[in-house]
Every structure is written in structure tokens, then in C-alpha cells.
DNA sequence: TGAATACATTGACAACTGTCTATGTGTGAT
DNA sequence: ATCACACATAGACAGTTGTCAATGTATTCA
């Protein structure tokens, strides 16, 4: 895996001490913020929790659309945000697209915030 | 402590299962999101980490202002956001105002996201 | 009382975000 | 081939957010 600027936010988070241990550098904060920002929306929080707790750990977009009173493009948009930041994996099977939570990413983020050692 | 709508986001988070355990309700997501949103900014992430890792667990605004290349009102604004959501406690002593991290709040949020049982 | 210091509040403005409608793209079935 | 379906993308628009300069409010000291 590359060490370059193309690190996804998720990859960045994995290697930081807990927030409360030592001050975050400017660069660390700039990289972590997008990941937290991706979670900072009620719809995306629900999307993530629905996917995570779904049978087989994955859910197709059609299931997700039904869970909200929002247009399909809006759900698609939120899924894209979560995917781009590395919290959700995508897989297309036939006509359907299945999303799956990157459990390690969530765990690392939790550790970073909560103070549990990663 | 009241069970009413006046729950601070921090109080709300403390009582939820991890994100990945079961789907968040609409109401839960609406309450948790502001807390995550408060963290979803690089400046606020750094502010929190600086305060948390400071000697005695507290820092005065003057220290914080010096750590950033931003105007004093801007820092004041970010501190207010973190305070209103319950992540930072304020205490005025003389002319100075000291901020302190609510460690439990951060821990609960980490548990909620990371999946560690609260 | 007056001046200086530490911090908060206000108001303004550009940038970003969430949502929608309309449209595009790929896949499977007839 | 054509049609229907599942999902993504584009463009538009209102609401929110981060920042600053200017101003307000306590508090201490002289």
C-alpha cells in the first residue's frame, strides 16, 4: 500500500494515537476530518447502521431506499460519500449494488475518538 | 437527570448500542449527528486533542489561540460548538476561561462508532 | 475612575452541503 | 431490439458553515 497523498481517510486514521493522548498535527486533523464529516449526518449514520446490522453484513440499495423518505438520488449521494471515504465497500452483482461496512475502519475511528488503544 | 428533549447530544449517545449492532432509529440518528458534526472539522479536532492532552486536562483560550493561525473570534466560535454539544466543559477563573474535555462523552462516542460495548 | 486584557457576540460573505428533478448507464427479460 | 428496472450523475437551489472585522462584556490593575 502506498504512503502517498492518495491515502484514503480510513487508512490515515488507523495509525493515530487516541485524540486525548497527544495533540493532533495540522495534517492529521485535515485527513481525519473528512472521515468524521462523512459520519456527521443523520441519514448517513442510519445508512451505516442499517448496512452493518443487515444479514450477511451487506445490503442492496433497494433495501436502503425503502428505509428512508428520501429520493433515490439522495440516498445514492449519501452512499457515495460513505464509499469515497472508505467506510463502505461496493460490489455490483447483476442489476443490484451491494454495500458492506469496512468494520476495521469504524473500529479504528472509534478507537481514535474514544481513547482505546489501536 | 431529565429524560426530556433537552438531552444534550452527549447524554443521548451514552445509551445507544454500537452502530453496527442494530439500526439506529430516525430519532437516535437525529440526536447523535450533531455530536459527530461537532467533531467533523479539523480545527475542532485539534482543539479537542490539545485540550485533552494538556497538563491538568485543561487549557485556557489564550493557549488555544496561539496554536492556530486563525482569528480569536473563530477559535471562540469553535469552542462554543464543542461546548454546546457537551464535549467541552467551561470554567471561568478571573479573566481566563478554561476548557476541559468531557472524557466520558468522547469514550461513549468512540464506543458507539467503534463497536466496543458501552 | 480609567485603561488594559481576555474572551464572547454580531453581522457579513463566500464556500459547502443536502435535497430535488431530470437524465444517463448498464443489466436482464421478453 | 426493445423495454423495464436498479442505480448513478448532473444541474439547480436553499440552507448551513467557517471565517473575518468590528464591537461588546467582564475582570483586573493602577
Report what the structure shows.
Two copies of one chain form a homodimer. The first copy, chain A, is of the alpha+beta class. Chain A has one domain: Winged helix-like DNA-binding domain superfamily/Winged helix DNA-binding domain (Arc Repressor Mutant, subunit A). The first copy, chain A, is about 50% helix and about 15% strand. Chain A has six helices and three strands, in the order αααβααββα. Chain A has a three-stranded antiparallel beta sheet with strand order 1-3-2. In chain A, a hairpin with a 2-residue loop joins strand 2 and strand 3. In chain A, helix 3 packs across helix 5. The first copy, chain A, is elongated. At the A-B interface, helix 2, helix 3 and helix 6 of A face helix 2, helix 3 and helix 6 of B. Chain A binds a DNA duplex (30 and 30 nucleotides) through helix 4 and helix 5.
CATH level 1 name of chain A: Mainly Alpha
How many helix segments of chain A?
A: 6
| Strand order, largest beta sheet of chain A | 1-3-2
CATH architecture call of chain A = Orthogonal Bundle
The CATH superfamily of chain A appears as Winged helix-like DNA-binding domain superfamily/Winged helix DNA-binding domain
Subunit organisation of the chains: homodimer
Helix content of chain A: 40-55%
Largest interface summary: A-B, 39 and 39 residues
| Category from helices, strands and their pairing of chain A | alpha+beta
Radius of gyration of chain A: 15 Å
Q: Main β-sheet of chain A, in a few words?
A: 3 strands, antiparallel
**How would you spell out the order of helices and strands of chain A?**
HHHEHHEEH
Question: What is the 3D shape of chain A?
Answer: elongated
Number of strands of chain A: 3
Distance between the termini of chain A: 19 Å
Overall pLDDT score of chain A: 87
Per the CATH scheme, the topology name of chain A is Arc Repressor Mutant, subunit A
Domain count of chain A: the total is 1
Approximately how much beta-strand content do the residues of chain A carry?
Answer: 5-15%
Low-confidence stretches of chain A: 1-6
